């Protein structure tokens, strides 16, 4: 603890060596972070945001998972002036970016030099962007223009390969036990989207013997074909998790999904064999075993309303999928019944004035129900007070009759 600052100072100089990243003030460490714990680093305005690994901690244990270094614009200019004597191209890079580059290089974030194989330009829609996938022995790293993130193979829980309604794209949904983070947003699912005719070629950097030694006996030395097939095959083989695709359920138009909305976003609901999956934002995964009840709302047949809502109540929460086409009601009801799920149809009541039979004694005169004119008359309204200089309808009719008699 001799070199540890105990003054409560929260500023200093960033020092990066081969093992640690330190913030130092007056030759004493304010904070020291092992580089091996840094899983991601990105720039947000004037901040460098570090995401730290939490695998060594228990689920309910307190842990440090994010650190932010704020570099003021004045400090960036000062550091740049100190380096003006060097007329290299690196001088044009801001001090903020220089620190970021050092962290990425020293912590080996997104580095592909020692990876086993690399797949370039993989399109993502959650989070959005194009990422390069580097496969290592225990983890896969994704790095794009702005963000980089890493996930352990043990953290991957499920795969879904979904044909999109445009019949051009396929979406690969990857479920994660430990969510990745970009700023304040956490993603429990990442979604890649491939064109069916998009082809690529991938070659392993390891020999057959090296692959066998690390347990990748099912991985081929070379892959050629559709990009979605290659990525699915590699991930499924490494993790041992099967890729799930829709099979039996189909809509009226022959597609495997329903267009609907989870406010405020529009997406697609896929009824699968043992679950329901909604993409794109947010990705929602619901197991059949977790569903307590399904409510089909607004199902009354009217010319004005062509949509209905699906409310799914689970053991812990509920989800509302709105604006589902009513033409899909029969198909969906049959699907729920075939999975032995409890379904309840809710029809909205007719709008208008309804008089309860039990209240007939209070609202009747001489055994007859009140008419609309009696119900709405001014005399029944205690708050209604006519002005003295105005005429009601009876007075007006009497005056008209007197005027006509006088003219005769």
UniProtKB/TrEMBL annotation:
It is found in: Chromosome. Pfam families: PH1_SSRP1-like, Rttp106-like_middle, SSrecog. Residues 391-400 have a biased composition (Polar residues). SMART domains: Rtt106 (SM01287). Residues 376-386 have a biased composition (Acidic residues). GO terms for biological process: DNA repair; DNA replication. Transmembrane segments: none annotated. GO terms for cellular component: FACT complex. PANTHER family: FACT COMPLEX SUBUNIT SSRP1. Belongs to the SSRP1 family. This is Histone chaperone RTT106/FACT complex subunit SPT16-like middle domain-containing protein. It comes from Paramecium pentaurelia. The lineage of its organism: Eukaryota, Sar, Alveolata, Ciliophora, Intramacronucleata.
